[in-house]
Amino acid sequence: MTQHTRVASTPAGTPTDVTQGSRTRGGIGESTLRPDGTLKVTGEFAYSSDMWHEDMLWGQILRSTVAHAEIVSIDTSEALAQAGVYAVLTYEDLPTEVRNYGLEIQDTPVLANGVVRHHGEPVALVAADHPETARRAAAKIKVEYRELPVVTDEASAVAEDAPLLHPGRDDHHVGHVPHPNIVHRQPIVRGDADAAAARADVVVSGEYTFGMQDQAFLGPESGLAVPAEDGGVDLYVATQWLHSDLRQIAPVLGLPEEKVRMTLSGVGGAFGGREDLSMQIHACLLALRTGKPVKIVYNRFESFFGHVHRHPAKLWYEHGATRDGKLTHMRCRIVLDGGAYASASPAVVGNASSLSVGPYVVDDVDIEAIALYTNNPPCGAMRGFGAVQACFAYEAQMDKLAAALDMDPVALRQLNAMEQGTLLPTGQPVDSPAPVAELLRRVKSRPLPPERQWETTEGADVRALPGGLSNTTHGEGVVRGVGYAVGIKNVGFSEGFDDYSTAKVRMEVVGGEPVATVHTAMAEVGQGGITVHAQIARTELGVTQVTINPADTQVGSAGSTSASRQTYVTGGAVRNSCELVRDKVLEIGRRRFGSYHPAWATAELLLEGGKVVTDGGEVLADLAEVLQDEVVEVEAEWRHRPTEAFDLRTGQGNGHVQYSFAAHRAVVEVDTELGLVKVIELACAQDVGKALNPLSVIGQIQGGTTQGLGVAVMEEIIVDPKTAKVRNPSFTDYLIPTILDTPTIPVDVLELADEHAPYGLRGIGEAPTLSSTPAVLAAIRNATGLELNRTPVRPEHLTGT
Amino acid sequence: MDFLRPASWEEALAAKAEHPTAVPIAGGTDVMVEINFDHRRPEYLLDLNRIGDLTEWEVGGESVRLGASVPYTAIMESLRTELPGLALASHTVASPQIRNRGGVGGNLGTASPAGDAHPALLAAGAEVEAESVRGSRMIPIDAFYTGVKRNALAPDELIRAVHIRKADGPQQYSKVGTRNAMVIAVCAFGLALHPESRTVRTGIGSAAPTPVRAEAAEDFLNAALEEGGFWESGKIITPSVAKQFAELASGACNPIDDVRGTARYRRHAVGIMARRTLGWTWEQYRGTARTLEGAA
User: Which of A10, B175, B194, B206 has fewest C-beta within 10 Å?
Assistant: First the structure.
């Protein structure tokens, strides 16, 4: 079911230096196995929640039971009086004047300061000698709330009498937003949409709603803070970006950064949900207060309140086209609900606006994206942010336009598909391959799965039908539908962010063998980064044995494990440091052996199979002989090409560094009477530039595809519109796909190199999450004939009930 | 919380008599969830896992005496012929791990309207064998569910077994959830044909405060089948009869709107399931259909 396709003709700009180390096993391009794989499958992997320390206390967070209220009083006396309780902390106990944190805007209180702005906001902390004691003590803290009106959507956010979520804002966005309950606004104006609209033969518009998705990662938030003798603290935690955490934690504790030593512990998954802080500061505060190690572990219920979610969105779109199907213009307005605190909202706005056109050529656009402050749960980073919501809407529009033009929806997309050189609405040219039409061709040309696969000689096999073993249909009411979608995601941090990573690489001889050690602060959250780092080191240094040191803050920042950026940026940093190590090793070689062979001075030298060889393949020396007892070590930063901010009025600017493209074809079967959906097949074609580890690439694409399927048919955090309280904070009622909901996912991998990126690779983790959702929606529309302008689709929407 | 571990049934009854607030725990698939979510902190937990008797079953002439702790997996594997409706219902319970632990006694003890076994028990016909130090009694399933998560057990009583009438005709069970496995019922429907008594019985889950039978629908269908001579002729049920049956089944619902679904959808879906399960069982009865057990 899996195919790896290498395009026949190598396009211009393909890097030629990727053969380095091809004779060393386990290098790039091989599907080396991940070291954590077997451990996770057998249940032996040590997650951050498995940590234990002698004399350890357990931390518990008391969270608000209402979404918006003044705190009239907090009485901690009963909790403090309970035996086994070591500390109870509230806002008043915070040790320094820095009492807020945040990724970009420091608007999030460590503990509520007289007001709570969302359901589940941390109000007080307890440390006790047993988790049950801590839980009971937290329940004994008496908090008196005076409830305030809630802001839950755009209308209530900008109403004349709207309560201001953050009065007295002084962040760098407040100057250009039309209302203080709007975090950030990014318009993009290019060409003349009005004039272009006059040329349109057909205009379609629609309003679309995207529900709030949860990352639902394995391993709820947890960590262990151990107070140190020097007055500092050692924090072991599952996170996505150690140095970003550190920058936010240290000032609140009143410690210099070097006294907060962070080490990554076992992470189950992240998908953006660990980019913001959760229990980090809380555990450190309790540890420093009590002088004892403090562990905090959320359960799944608390986890739903303990991290940001995907921004729900309302999207209004208008597209025009000439009769022959050429897009004339696009207008859109995207309203993202950021919830109570800013988190990554500004970047989500930047992505949503700059990628709102999708992978299409449209010269005349009028775009606006905003993120709101509301009393809903805070929303921030999640796989594909901003681009995911937009893709859902523009792909629905493309189908609507195709119907209005009586055109094939794939043909319409191909006719307008972007290619290398196309200008984005921001005016930035796409300067690497953009095989949008080809990806669509590939998913479309794949044979369709056979119809009525549930029919057997024994009767209906319900496992192949909507409802599965719940036995709701034996074929009655079941209609098949097919849908297509394609998307574009930026890779790496955009809009002028200094996006760099640091890698320390050491080479030495151990037991007669040359070995390499790679040390970065990259958070391995399941994406397979450490596997790839070892592959890169083998390829570049010609060694077999590579040790990956644990990620910690004793080495420079690796940036976030998000935005599909780690293989590109930290992978690039590892390669760069390896190259610097290689240069030093060759220098030693020249010093020792240069006089014995002229090739030391004249040839291009490589490290392969534990030896120094010429580019012609001649062996000059064993690495062990070259190095002897010398240790070569380099720590260096590496950054991708710089980007620039978008103009605040026109949205123009070279804001992005790279793009990732994927297309899907969804085949669904819908029980139209009961409104139940079974996705039969979800075929994906994606350009990955260069598959450093083909098996991991397939895994990422299948995982992303499934996460997109989830928000198409089941995943949604339901927030009560009257109270702004979360109604389904559990895996009983927040449903994610099981294996019986996950279809066959055939993957067609293209490798069109991006000449600007290491090895020509593209970040791949997010793109499949974009197009999966609209493809499933398109297929359901195709099966039912319904408009379906919101996701996820519920049985009620399909049955009009 | 005290953890009571009786070694025998008699000890269990004595413990329950002494501590009527004790919560019995067998598979723990309901109780542990409630404890973990802090919805419930019972003073005493009464562990029934040492009483091997509870995991046994006997197939008699008329009925199956199913021990309260017989896991769903055993029902699926060993009692498909005798209890086809309950076997189908068992397939829809959570995950394989939960089905290895959970049993019908727990479903009855919790008496949630969403319990998967209830519609199958109502449709098949069953009696709950309840016992206390005072003695043993049989509670008809129709009288067992008394309110939301409430049942007819006295505080000192434990469920020892449930006696389920052996199938004398085809049975079907359908459950709607918003994913294809591991899901709490949005609503469910069980239907059993009883050719010996020429009656049809039904059960509805998750669409009223308690599991209920669609009695008006049953009465209508029983009369229509009798009048039309359907039992003798085995002819196809007239679509208008099936439609009316479905509407009456819908009408038997008294559902609520919640995060899992709307009341309107539940009514609608119960009607669809009623019509379909009637069609499937009747086809089986007519003997024209190949095995349509639904579960592979």
Answer: A10
